[in-house]
Amino acid sequence: QVQLVESGGGLVQPGGSLRLSCAASGSIFRINPMAWYRQAPGKQRDWVAAITSGGSTNYADSVKGRFTISRDNAKNTVYLQMNSLKPEDTAVYYCNVDDRFLKLLPWGQGTQVTVSS
């Protein structure tokens, strides 16, 4: 089935930016609503941003105005542009299908984002 591979994380200063990528194998990607999730140490895995197959987007209040989700269906890739990063954004970031509409796929390895001075 579809495999999810996240990349692009790293260590950044508060106020900095990162662009995460999620590569999804398989031929069904273009019709799937996709989302980014994150999990901070000791906390639940939370939804961050979602994008439909048609490109409509939604964001958690905590990231609204700072993060932008996008997708390139031809490349089977979902992106998360993260600007104005805050220490509280520190987490492992994962992509998956949007669980409002689809059963979650097996999680990938995620990519670590650390925001620290």
Properties at a glance:
4-stranded antiparallel β-sheet, mainly beta, 117 residues, 6-stranded mixed β-sheet
Note down, in words, how this protein is organized.
The protein is mostly beta strands. The chain contains no helices and ten strands. The strands form two sheets. A six-stranded mixed β-sheet has the order 2-10-9-4-5-6, with no helix packed on it. A four-stranded antiparallel β-sheet has the order 1-3-8-7, with no helix packed on it. A hairpin with a 5-residue loop joins strand 4 (34-39) and strand 5 (45-51). The termini are far apart.
How big is the Rg?
A: 13 Å
Q: What is the helical fraction, as a range of percent?
A: under 10%
- Summing up helix and strand content along with how strands pair, one would put the structural category as mainly beta
The global form is: globular
Amino- and carboxy-terminal Cα gap:
40 Å
Strand order of the largest sheet: 2-10-9-4-5-6
The averaged pLDDT comes out at 94
Number of strands: 10
Assembly status: single chain
What is the N-to-C order of secondary-structure elements (H for helix, E for strand)? EEEEEEEEEE
Low-confidence stretches: none
Strand content: over 45%
Number of helices: 0
